[in-house]
Amino acid sequence: MQQEQEISQQQLSLLMRNKEHFHKAFLAQGYWMPESKSQFCTKAWMQEVFFLECWCPKKKEISFMTCLNPPPGRDVSDMICRMIEDKEDWGSDQQQKQFRRMAVHMRRHLPPRDWMLGLLSKMHPDNEIFKKGYHPPKKERAQQVQPTIPNHNGFFDNLPPLSASELRKGNGFKLNLLTKKQRKQQQLARLEEQEQRLTASKAKKQAELDDLEDEEDGIQLRVTKAEFDLIRRAKEAGLDQGRAVAPD
């Protein structure tokens, strides 16, 4: 069995210094990679791919399929993640773990849609989204249930609607005939809607923060050999001076 070759940290520093260099190395090795500036392509994900802890196919392994009407990126991501999480026979135990890790990263950061369509071409080339007549299902926006007002004794029957000029003009007064309970329910519904938006915004900001932390983790202090020798000599001189003045 051929022994795996290794390189030193100094040799590595001559080949790559940042995330972009790492990304280019993957491209040179033929990996099907998302754009380096995408939120999904973090240093943490690439490290897992490098150490064979996370799955990423090579470009030559993919028979790219055409999707004329692709669904939104979030829908494609959910489709792939559900496929990974529901299927139990992705190969060996190591391959199973690699696919699971890919789903974890995709749930955390949304990858570019075109890149995910390449993954789906590899994983499930017969998927319905690659069929000629496929159209993504239309999503109906959830409409807020409007509270109703009782029409006592036909009070509102046969009343003429306001004219366009009356609707435009307004007078700063908004008639509210809701009961106290209905008003509280309406306020609660608005708060729940705001909470959902805040949760989505918080998740997005956390993902951006994680990306910044990944970038900072990849920053390394670099000094020249002359500077390193100067620092080493200064430390040695300090130690020698400390020994000279140390009490018996």
Short description:
The protein is an all-alpha fold and 248 residues long.
Task: Kindly describe this structure.
This protein has a domain at about 20-130. It is mainly alpha-helical. It is about 50% helix and about 0% strand. It is elongated and about 90 Å long. About 10% of the residues are buried. Residues about 215-225 and about 240-248 have low confidence and may be disordered. The longest helix has about 40 residues, at about 180-215. It contains 9 helices and no strands.
Q: What is the ordering of alpha helices and beta strands?
A: HHHHHHHHH
N-to-C CA distance = 58 Å
Strand content: under 5%
> What is the averaged pLDDT score?
80
Helix content: 40-55%
In angstroms, what is the radius of gyration? Answer: 30 Å
Total E-strand runs: 0
Query: What structural category arises from helix and sheet content?
Result: mainly alpha
The oligomeric state of the chains shown is: single chain
Low-confidence stretches: 215-223, 239-248
Query: What is the approximate shape?
Result: elongated
Count of helices? Answer: 9
Any key phrases for this structure?
single chain, 248 residues, mainly alpha
